[in-house]
Amino acid sequence: xxxxxxxxxxxxxxxxxxxxxxxxxxxxxxxxxxxxxxxxxxxxxxxxxxxxxxxxxxxxxxxxxxxxxxxxxxxxxxxxxxxxxxxxxxxxxxxxxxxxxxxxxxxxx
Length: 109
Known about the structure:
The chain is mainly β. The chain has one helix at residues 95-98, and strands at residues 15-17, 23-27, 32-36, 42-46, 53-58, 64-68, 73-77, 84-89. It has one domain: TolB, C-terminal domain (Neuraminidase), CATH 2.120.10.30. It contains one helix and eight strands. The longest helix has 4 residues, at 95-98.
């Protein structure tokens, strides 16, 4: 995804067809996610600074889940406005000693 306001930075990571027919994607270096709507528009949703969203999947019930690589979290996002509606930590018990998990991709069973 390259837009004039993004300069020369290309940063689309995961790309996934949603159950609603839209195409969703993450942009790790921009701390945002987005989608191509059914009418051809591009919508962006900002996530917390430094979160580095990476993995992207939908649950069987249509929930939209993203990994936040730098925060050691998996979050569920609202399909209405991209806001975080639930947060799940995948951090080690002692990140100071064990390091960060840095979740990339995910699967939903």
